[in-house]
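Appendix C reproduces, verbatim, an entry submitted by the partner laboratory led by Prof. M.T., so that reviewers can inspect both the input and the predicted structure.
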Amino acid sequence: MRDAFTCGPPVYGENFFGRAALVASLLDGMLAGRESTLLIGESRIGKTSILRQLSHVLAPVDGTAVFFDGWIGGSAQRFAVELGRALDEAPGLQHRAARAGEKGLYPLLHLLESSRHRLTLLVDEVDGIVADKESARFIRSAASLGHKIVIAGSRIDPAQHETHPTEPPWWNVFRIQYVGLFTQDEANDLLLTLSERSGQQFTDGECAFLQDMVGGFPYFLQWLGKEVFLRGYRDCTTSQRRTLFQELATDYSLVGMLGQYFGGWLDRLDDRQIALLVESASGRGITPHLGMIQLKNRGLLVEDDGRWRPFSRLFGEFLRALPKGPLVDRKSVV
């Protein structure tokens, strides 16, 4: 019997957990014709799964939803070609989008403008797209035409994107929605349901143990759940399961894998933000203040008894292990 935990591919349908209020809010906004949305969150926090879930939910009632993976790199011309192909089956475009995309972004935008159908565009990995000035202009213009657009990126502060002095910021036509950690109830639901589907449900104590290690970070919870079953959890006695979990918490390969992600997060922070994170990993945590809001929005900090601390024990240990010295040197440490 295979385990039911998923690592890597986005999930939707019965495998989608948490985010119920967020998905409902996005759907309500689409149906009401409100502004488009920019989802912002760390890599692996679940942004792609949210877009896939929106597409899954909309499919039976709205045939205008189009998912596009922006992880293509390259020029505006390549973006136009790939987006045109993705849009070619959309209602109202009558198989003209692929041909328009081959001619460039402006003909594709003109086609969207002339369409009587308002489309729902779900665009993932938008950071690479908007690095190109022409592509960024297209994203802004398409949203301004009244098409319902939800895009996702990992740049926590959109102002970090370079913009041309004569161009308006592309992101200011979008409502910004941060994607953070699972709540405790959402994390428990994921762990209990998937472990039961895998043949042996975790105990409440085991769920708490895993959340202590990696917090409410959905990808890490999925990864740990899969790892537990790969190590024979289903066939273990109670005593053996306890040993298995203890060994997992000190596994060098696991800590190394997590450290690679943690180090990548620091690469996107400035020195002041890194200093705040390091300070939060002290025994007392730190007092909340406005300068830390972005760190909390992105799920790196959680509130604990009036103080803000790292979102998990292993992230706290990673921060405390950073070498002393210039902050710029710490970013490359894994």
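The radius of gyration is 22 Å. Additional entries are available on request from the coordinating office.
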